[in-house]
């Protein structure tokens, strides 16, 4: 019987299980029967400095520890920074973004991404940021845990519970709310990018994240809704409009996948570690799952050590 039972195999659950296993703890992961974790639909941007536009300082500070954690455990973390651009009519948005963030420099976007030649006169480059393929990252963590003897199953937990079920824990934590995100995966032979490109817009800022074999992840809307139905026509049109604004050749890209996820969030949009009646939880990742889950998992380990539980 395992000493620890992690509920959920999304990014929070796998990071917690990995942190426990690395400390020699006996752990099992309880998986869901049907639903897909919100992290399956994530962009995979490890971008603490860009998040400073709307996130509190705590997110920026904690998020800087994320890329080293991932790089030490999986293959495929790309340390190529983030490029932020805006169309000519939205230049004030770029200026505003520069004032609200730091650790960036003004650049000619084409010097970093030749595909953008002639598209944008100026951009912001956040050199210290990184990105990864979320699905590959989760698969690698899972494989590493299985090799370490961690059991994944859908049965009853046998150890002390750490609940990392995201929005599916809302019945036990009614203060959680769902924030719907919608995304597309495109395939293009014409537009090649080497780093995430964010395009600013007053109503629907979007980003493109390069993935393998000519694929690009395009996301992501932020809607205060518990709806997990397929992507709306409006969201798809807005996302594709943003892609066209980045490069007109993306009008000929093929849509190979669309998806929606419900991000779990507390009122302040900051994740939290909680313990009630002997049940621990790590939840409320909001839009910062891959950025903050590793750091929050390590913070949980520190609390468990202080409680002399590990």
TrEMBL record:
Name of the protein in question: FAD-dependent oxidoreductase
Superkingdom as given in the UniProt entry: Bacteria
Transmembrane segments: none
GO MF annotation terms: oxidoreductase activity
The keyword Oxidoreductase appears for this protein: yes
Gene3D superfamilies: D-Amino Acid Oxidase, subunit A, domain 2, FAD/NAD(P)-binding domain
Gene Ontology, cellular component aspect: cytoplasm
UniProt-listed Pfam families: DAO
Annotated keywords: Oxidoreductase, Plasmid
Ranges for domain FAD dependent oxidoreductase: 6-300
Lineage, broadest ranks: Bacteria, Pseudomonadati, Pseudomonadota, Gammaproteobacteria, Enterobacterales
């Amino acid at each position: 019987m395992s000493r620890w039972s992690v509920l959920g195999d999304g990014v929070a659950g796998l990071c917690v299980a990995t942190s426990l296993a690395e400390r020699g703890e006996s752990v099992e992961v309880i998986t869901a029967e049907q639903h897909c974790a919100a992290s399956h639909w994530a962009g995979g941007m490890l971008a603490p400095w860009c998040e400073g536009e709307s996130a509190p300082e705590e997110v920026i500070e904690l998020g800087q520890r994320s890329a080293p954690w991932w790089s030490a455990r999986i293959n495929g973390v790309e340390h190529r920074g983030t490029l932020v651009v805006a169309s000519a009519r939205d230049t004030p948005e770029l200026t505003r973004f520069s004032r609200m963030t730091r650790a960036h420099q003004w650049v000619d976007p084409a010097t970093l991404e030749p595909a953008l030649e002639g598209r944008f006169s100026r951009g912001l480059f956040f050199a210290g940021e990184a990105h990864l393929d979320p699905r590959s990252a989760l698969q690698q963590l899972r494989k590493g845990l299985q090799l370490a003897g961690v059991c994944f199953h859908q049965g009853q937990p046998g150890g002390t519970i750490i609940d990392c079920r995201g929005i599916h824990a809302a019945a036990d934590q009614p203060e959680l709310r769902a924030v719907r995100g919608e995304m597309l995966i495109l395939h293009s032979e014409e537009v090649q990018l080497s780093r995430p490109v964010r395009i600013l817009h007053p109503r629907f800022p979007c980003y493109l994240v390069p993935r393998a074999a000519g694929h690009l992840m395009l996301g992501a809307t932020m809607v205060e809704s518990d709806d997990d139905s397929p992507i709306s026509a409006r969201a798809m049109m807005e996302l594709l409009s943003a892609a066209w604004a980045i490069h007109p050749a993306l009008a000929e890209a093929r849509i190979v996948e669309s998806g929606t996820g419900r991000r779990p969030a507390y009122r302040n949009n900051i994740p939290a570690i909680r313990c009630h009646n002997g049940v621990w939880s790590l939840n409320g990742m909001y839009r910062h799952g891959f950025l903050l889950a590793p750091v929050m998992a390590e913070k949980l380990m520190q609390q468990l050590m202080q409680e002399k539980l590990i």
